[in-house]
From TrEMBL:
NCBIfam families for this protein: thiS
Record's protein name: Sulfur carrier protein ThiS
SUPFAM superfamilies reported in the protein's UniProt record: MoaD/ThiS
Pfam families linked: ThiS
CDD domains linked: Ubl_ThiS (cd00565)
Classification via Gene3D superfamilies: 3.10.20.30
UniProt xrefs under InterPro entries: Beta-grasp_dom_sf (IPR012675), Mopterin_synth/thiamin_S_b (IPR016155), Thi_S (IPR010035), ThiS/MoaD-like (IPR003749)
Name of the gene this protein is made from: thiS
Amino acid sequence: MEILVNGTPHLIAEGTTVAQLLVILDLQGKRLAMEVNQELVPRSQFDNVILQPQDTVEIVHAIGGG
């Protein structure tokens, strides 16, 4: 199925969770925030949120500094 990640189409398997998407994108363990269809997904829910066809995912990396 196709989803959009930061505006770029990606083909993933049906039933893919947000956590699995991070593995696919090689982003697991990184400090980031994620929205699915403009709704923030808490990190505690990454294993529970199953992506659907045509979902729009936005991933923002946290950058420290000062």
